[in-house]
Design brief:
42% helix; Rossmann fold; 15 helices; de novo design (two linked rop proteins); Ubiquitin-like (UB roll); 9 strands; 403 residues; five-stranded mixed beta sheet; binds iron/sulfur cluster; four-stranded parallel beta sheet; alpha/beta; binds flavin mononucleotide; 3 domains
Length: 403
């Protein structure tokens, strides 16, 4: 199944990933890492960690038991671009994983595939088989003596938290998917406590592009601090939802023009854990230096009830919190209760001030990115749509401050 890319041709379609692999295999391991570092590429999974730096940390570790993990969990609400890449450009992803394996000195690669994408397993395995037959996986990959690298596909079971890299590793090891304490980071002690890089599907496909077309070509897209192009999953109140490619640095307004969402009153960028950007800020850029994003863009038209949007996100986080730490487990529940009280018109202004403090505590005291970011959307919706929310008619007699 292929998702419509709305006539927006993806650069991935024009890239020969195996030419990239061949070019990389002609380099030393250190040069491969330097090339990725020179490209300035930052991870496409959302956090924007520099890919060259991650590969360098893992490459510097001793030992020959290392792993390359492709994070294909894609659980962030509103994100579906990795599904397109895995469907149409699996060779690029596998070429990128193989280049990463060569760079860090790993022999094994694992694709951690979102449970809901189980239907993709057979096509991915068919591509892997084809690559083994072509000598692009297995022993002496690409004719390079002593470079053995193979890839397997492992399935998740539908938990959002298993997209977080250390919970993903726990899940791969057969344990409950709960984030680990860090340090040590996965590049030092990851899967089976061996050095491991976890990269997003798009990051790995883009790495193959860098070797196929060169660093200068890659840097000709995007901004100085956010190099390259990015895939965006665009949904909601727009005429042409779908997967689009834009260079980093595109403004929210220009993106909305392309997708037929000019009338939007707000755009949620970065999924449920991202930020709600109101119309007054549509001149802002999609880039790590302004609005960082893994690519989820939800467009909200004038008729949308922004409190209902916030409530929906909070319900998601209450369900998906792994429950390990109190600020996240209790904090999200308190946030949801407040959203429900706001809906009834029974939440006091004093309590909203307390929620802001709670949000700050969740950001600093939660163990992983879920709890650290889950209040962002609610807080930004309260900030930008406070008048809309507070002017709702009260459904109960008096405002109350919950215990
Ligand atoms: C709750 C949570 C869910 C995440 N889900 C994903 C995901 O589905 N896919 C992904 O690539 N990264 C996800 N991440 C980020 C990963 O932990 C990690 O940063 C990423 O895979 C690194 O890849 P990159 O450097 O190529 O971006 C998630 C993080 C958190 C906190
Ligand atoms: S922040 Fe939330 S999801 Fe992350 S470890 Fe704590 S309870 Fe689990």
């Amino acid at each position: 199944m292929s998702i419509q890319t709305q006539g927006n041709t993806l650069t991935f379609a024009s890239i020969d990933g195996d030419a990239g692999l061949k070019a990389a295999l002609a380099m030393s391991r250190a040069d491969i890492i330097d090339t990725v570092a020179d490209s300035g590429m930052k991870g496409r999974g959302g956090a924007g960690f520099p890919t060259g730096m991650k590969w360098n940390f893992a490459g510097a570790q001793k030992g020959d038991k290392k792993y390359v993990i492709c994070n294909a969990d894609e659980g962030e609400p509103g994100t579906f671009k990795d599904r397109v890449i895995l469907t149409d450009f699996a060779d690029l992803v596998f070429a990128g994983m193989t280049i990463a394996g060569r760079a860090i000195g790993a022999k094994e690669g694992i694709v951690y595939l979102r449970g809901e994408y189980t239907y993709l397993r057979s096509s991915l395995n068919a591509v892997i088989k084809k690559r083994r037959t072509a000598g692009l996986l297995g022993t002496d990959v690409g004719g390079v003596k002593g470079f053995d690298f193979d890839i397997i596909v492992a399935l998740g079971a539908g938990a959002y938290i298993c997209g977080e890299e250390t919970a993903l590793i726990e899940s791969l090891e057969g344990f409950r998917g709960e984030p680990r304490n860090r340090p040590p980071f996965p590049v030092v002690a990851g899967y089976r406590y061996a050095p491991t890089i976890v990269n997003n599907v798009e990051t790995l496909a883009s790495a193959a592009c860098i070797f196929a077309k060169g660093v200068d070509w890659f840097k000709s897209f995007g901004t100085d601090r956010s190099t390259g192009f990015k895939l965006f999953s665009i949904s909601g109140d727009c005429a042409k939802p779908g997967v689009y490619e834009f260079p980093f640095g595109i403004t929210v307004a220009d993106l909305l023009k392309e997708v037929g969402g000019d009338d939007a009153k707000a755009v949620q960028i970065g999924g449920a854990s991202g930020t709600c950007v109101p119309r007054a800020q549509f001149a802002r850029q999609m880039a790590f230096e302004d609005i960082p994003t893994g690519g989820s863009v939800m467009v909200f038209g004038a008729q949308r009830d922004m409190l209902a949007v916030a409530q929906n996100f909070l319900e998601f986080f209450v369900d998906e919190s792994c429950g390990q730490c109190t600020p996240c487990r209790v904090g999200n529940t308190k946030m949801l209760e407040a959203a429900e009280q706001l809906k009834e018109g029974t939440c006091s202004a004093e309590y909203i001030a307390e929620l802001r403090e709670l949000s700050g505590t969740m950001q600093v005291a939660s163990k992983c990115g879920l709890g650290q970011t889950s209040s962002n959307a609610f807080m930004s919706i309260l900030e930008h749509f406070g008048d809309e929310i507070m002017s709702r008619p009260a459904q109960a007699e008096t405002a109350r401050t919950p215990a």
